[in-house]
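User: quick one
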Amino acid sequence: MDYLEIIGGGKLSGNVKISGAKNSALPVIAATILSDKPLTLTNLPNVVDIRTLLKLLTMLGGKVEHNDTVAVVDNGTINSTKAVYEIVSQMRASILVLGPLLARFKVCEVSLPGGCAIGQRPIDMHLKALESMGAIIEIKGGYVRAEAPNGLHGAKIVFDKITVGGTENVLMAAALANGTTTIVNAAREPEIVQLCDMLSSAGVVITGTGTGEITIEGTNGVPLTFPETKIIPDRIEAGTYLCAGAISHSTITLDEVDANHLKAVIDKLEVMGCSFDIEPNSITIHGPEKLKPVHIITTEYPGFPTDMQAQFMAIAAIADGESIIEERLFENRFMHVSELNRLGSDIWLKGSLAAVHGVEKLYGADVMATDLRASSALVLGALVAEGTTNVRRIYHLDRGYDNLEGKLSKLGANITRKKG
Ligand code: EPZ
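Assistant: Done. Structure below.
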């Protein structure tokens, strides 16, 4: 199994190109099911999750030509509407095919995604919303079976809690429904905005994009025709490289990035003593010699993202003082704590709160990645740890970071992928 060997200590310098956003590419790929015509997606990140969802399309009968960052998808040939366990169990985001399959084919079966390392992550709000749009849903044999013999109809959906995936599933279902759907308490992430823009580019009338209340006029079953769609920059990958600059006291520049998507992250890094030069498509971070502590509460966009919590814990580990980090979205997203402590950090956990007492130095050790963002936190710690760190189980990293070791090497890090 692959692992990363990282020899810590050096500074980073230079430029890194940010890839397309995994969490935007996934709903965009799912949305292609709403079309029966070929379309081209560009700026896809070259990561395992994207290949997994494209494979699911081919298993449904779609045609996919995929070459690193570009895919031509033709879902005119779909002849199955069953998303099988084999794929869904590899990636929870496969649940995003539920809304578009049901909207276009009026019936589908999608394996229940099951548990997840970072928390229980139910899909109850997705199902309740589709039911209020006319779906009849049954859960049997580990599958969600949904049908809407007369097609879906518009409805007023009020989410009890903000859900990114739930908002995406309803947006896609509503695009082909009969009538108007209003989503109240909708997610506002840039990835939601990209999905709304994609649907609008196919002629779907949407108002309230980027706000907590979105209205969608459905086409009453008429499939969509999309123009070429370019995936937005990955704000979480970008945030991770900003943390790499911060933790290594370095100046590095991120290219092809949108600073507007990173306001909460940049604000916290400023609190920690970092400074920035921000241009329309690039961000240069200047990491200070000594980082200051920080208080963080994870919340929905535009608040501080849960997907950056682990990386900030790594940099807080060597800050000058005590940081407090509260995780409000997922009940089990602190698995990196015990691994960071293996590198010498001093982190104390109680429920959803972590107190991080900054230490002078981290020391290299063998550590194990537990989920995608936890893995990147370990890599960040390893960049400044004295000696060698081996980060194992990096298949988590490969799901969502495009060529992490290549990009960090180019910035001057001593990082090598090894087998063993
Ligand atoms: C998306 O997951 C992201 N995944 C996650 O990124 C991210 O951490 C999360 O949003 C929050 O920002 C993708 O975009 C593919 P939610 P999603 O529905 O859509 C609860 C990463 O590292 N909930 O917004 O699954 C849920 O348990 C990943 O790239 C219900 O209770 O998240 C959580 O507590 C990991 N019932 C909260 O809502 C539901 O039906 C928010 O989850 C749905 C969600």
